[in-house]
Amino acid sequence: MPNAPRIGTGYDIHRLVSDRPLILGGITIPYERGLLGHSDGDAVFHALTDALLGAACLGDIGEFFPDTDPKYENADSKMFLADAVSRIRAEGYTVGNVDLVIHAERPNMSDFKRPMAESIAAILEISPKCVNVKAKTNEGLGPVGTRDGIACTVVALLLQE
Ligand code: MG
Predict the structure, then answer these.
(1) What separation in Å is there between the alpha carbon of 106 and the centre of ligand 1?
(2) Ligand 1 centroid – CA 93 distance (Å)
(3) What is the CATH number of the domain that holds 149?
(4) Spacing, Cα 3 to ligand 1 middle (Å)
(5) Is residue 1 part of a domain?
(6) Residue-range definition of the domain harbouring residue 98
(7) Which of 20, 59, 84, 126 is deepest in the core (most CB within 10 A)?
(8) Is residue 38 part of a domain?
(9) Tens digit of pLDDT for each residue in 50-94?
(10) How far does the centroid of ligand 1 lie from the alpha carbon of residue 67, in Å?
(11) Model confidence over 92-123: pLDDT tens digits?
């Protein structure tokens, strides 16, 4: 089907450490620890970037922004996502909707889901009604459950312009 919608998935996890701000979906969230990463560690933007690239069959974030490149040290991950948006647009796609899950034992995300959806929608240039942010604890299981990390999974749908 030449004009069929295209679906992509993304996943990312980063380790929680002291002395870093917690930034998810471009929003700084008050917490005693933050995500370790070569960039700002924004697992939401990284997973979403991968979902968009995946839907357009354009590879993954590491191919365009290797974490060995000093240029991206402490980078604002918004640039990765904005770059992916430019790439999918160049291929003739727009974003239909995205649905994402933040996997975090702490902190509670309920106050931040809406600001995150608005932040993401602005970068994707779509309505916040097309961006759904969910948050789950891991019931104490695994690296998320022990509060060693925060993960994010994303599904994105692209439409042909
Ligand atoms: Mg990452």
Answers:
(1) 19
(2) 24
(3) 3.30.1330.50
(4) 31
(5) no
(6) 6-160
(7) 84
(8) yes
(9) 999 999 999 999 999 988 888 888 889 999 999 999 999 999 999
(10) 9
(11) 999 999 999 999 999 999 999 999 999 999 99
Of 44, 22, 11, 31, nearest in space to 119 by CA: 44
In a domain, 50, yes or no: yes
- Determine what percent of the chain falls in helix, strand and coil, rounding each to the nearest 5: 30, 30, 35
The answer to whether residue 32 is domain-embedded is yes
Ligand 1 centroid from CA 102, angstroms: 13
Q: Looking at the predicted structure, is the pLDDT value of residue 2 above 90?
A: no
Distance 134 CA to ligand 1 centre (A): 19
Instruction: Please give the distance, rounded to the nearest whole angstrom, from the Cα atom of residue 129 to the centre of ligand 1.
Output: 25
What's the pLDDT score for residue 67?
A: 85
C-alpha 1 to ligand 1 mean position (Å): 33
Domain count, the chain: 1
The CA 78 to ligand 1 mean position distance, Å, reads: 12
User: Torsion-angle region of residue 52: left (phi > 0), alpha (psi -120 to 50) or beta?
Assistant: alpha
Q: What is the pTM of this model?
A: 0.96
Distance 44 CA to ligand 1 centre (A): 8
Q: Is 88 helix (H, G, I), strand (E, B) or coil?
A: helix
Give residue for tokens 């998810």. Answer: 24
What backbone torsions phi and psi does residue 138 show, to the nearest 5 degrees? -110, 20
